[in-house]
Design goal:
The protein is of the alpha/beta class. Helices cover about 35% and strands about 15% of the residues. The structure holds iron/sulfur cluster (SF4).
Length: about 300
C-alpha cells in the first residue's frame, strides 16, 4: 500500500539532541492548511495511507484535527501521526484524534527513565507526558507503534526501554539508528557526545528485540545493516516500509525508498562480497564518512 508522508512544519516542543530534522526548525515555514489539503487531495489517486509528521504535527493541535478529518473524508485508509507523543497525555485530545480518523499512533520514546529521555529531548517532563500518552492510547484500545532513536546516551538502555514498552502494552516498537545531520557531522564534540558505534550498539539492540519477541510484541529496527543483525534479519524494517512520497520542506521526494537507497545510504568497498549486498541498503552515508568502513564485515555467502 502506497502512502504519503506529510511534513507539516518543523517546529517542535522537544529539542532532541540527535534530531535529523533539527536544522530545518528555524529555516522553513509551516505548511498552511490549504497546502496540506492540496497535497492530500492530489495524492489520493494513488496513495491509501498518510503519515502526518514534521517537526511535531501536534504543535498545531486544532489544525491537525482538521487535516485528519479531511484525509478521512477523502478516503485514506490508514492515518498515522508520528509525534513526540506529549499531546497524547491529554485524554480528551486522544479521543478527538480518534474521532477525526487517526488509526495509527506513532509516539517517540528514547529512554526507559525521565533522566535519559528528558536529557535527550531537552524538555523536562517530556518522558512523563509521553508515557502517560501511551497509557491513554492503550486505555482507548489504539494501535501504538513507537520509535526510539539509538544514540550514544541510550543504547545501553535499550533492553530496559523494551521492557517498558512491553509493560505499557504497545503494539509495536522500533529501534532506529540515528541519522547524523550536517550540524553534528561538522562538530567533533557533538559526534563524540551523541553518535554511537554500530558494533557497540549491536548486543543491546538484540537484547532489546528479544524482550519484545519473547513477549509477543512486534519489533523492528531501522538503519542497521544486515552485518549487525545476524539472526535478527527478519526484523529489518527497510524490507517492509511501504512505498511513500515525502512532502518535505518546500520540496517533494517521489518514492522515498529509492531516494533513501540511492542518496541517503551508502555501501562500502567490501560490501559486494557480502551475502546481503543486493538487499542491504548499508548505513546512513554520514556514518562511514566519519568512522570509515572497518566495522562493516561482509556476511559470508
Ligand atoms: S552489504 Fe555491506 S553494510 Fe550491508 S550487511 Fe553487507 S557488509 Fe554490511
Amino acid at each position: 500500500m502506497k502512502r504519503i508522508d506529510v511534513k507539516v512544519g518543523f517546529q517542535c516542543s522537544n529539542l532532541c539532541r540527535f534530531c535529523v530534522q533539527g536544522d530545518k526548525r528555524y529555516k522553513h515555514p509551516d505548511k498552511s492548511t490549504k497546502e496540506i489539503k492540496e497535497i492530500l487531495k492530489k495524492s489520493k489517486k494513488d496513495a491509501e495511507g498518510v503519515v502526518f509528521t514534521g517537526g511535531e504535527p501536534t504543535f498545531r493541535p486544532k489544525e491537525l484535527l482538521k487535516w485528519v478529518t479531511y484525509a478521512k473524508g477523502l478516503g485514506y485508509k490508514t492515518i498515522q501521526i508520528q509525534t513526540n507523543g506529549r499531546m497524547f497525555s491529554y485524554l480528551g485530545y486522544c479521543k478527538d484524534l480518534i474521532k477525526a480518523g487517526v488509526n495509527e499512533f506513532g509516539p517517540a520514546l528514547h529512554g526507559s527513565t525521565p533522566e535519559i529521555h528528558d536529557y535527550l529531548t531537552r524538555a523536562p517532563g517530556s518522558w512523563e507526558q509521553t508515557t502517560k500518552g501511551i497509557r491513554n492510547l492503550r486505555s482507548l484500545g489504539q494501535y501504538i507503534l513507537t520509535n526510539s532513536v539509538i544514540n550514544k546516551k541510550n543504547y545501553k538502555d535499550l533492553p530496559n526501554l523494551a521492557k517498558l514498552f512491553v509493560s505499557l502494552g504497545v503494539s509495536q516498537f522500533q529501534f532506529a539508528f540515528m541519522h547524523i545531520n550536517h550540524i553534528i557531522a561538522n562538530d567533533p564534540n557533538l559526534i563524540k557526545g551523541i553518535v554511537p558505534r554500530h558494533s557497540k550498539v549491536e548486543p543491546y539492540v538484540k537484547k532489546g528485540l528479544n524482550v519484545g519477541i519473547n513477549a509477543g510484541v512486534k519489533v523492528m529496527t531501522e538503519a542497521i545493516p544486515y552485518c549487525f543483525m545476524e539472526g535478527y534479519e527478519e526484523y529489518i524494517a527497510e524490507k517492509v516500509i511501504p512505498e511513500s512520497d515525502v512532502f518535505d520542506a518546500g520540496f517533494e521526494v517521489k518514492d522515498y525508498s529509492k531516494y533513501r537507497k540511492n542518496q541517503g545510504k551508502a555501501k562500502g568497498p567490501n560490501c559486494p562480497k557480502c551475502k546481503y549486498y543486493k538487499i542491504c541498503e548499508g548505513p546512513w552515508r554520514e556514518y562511514p564518512q566519519i568512522f570509515g568502513w572497518d566495522e562493516f564485515k561482509p556476511v559470508k555467502k
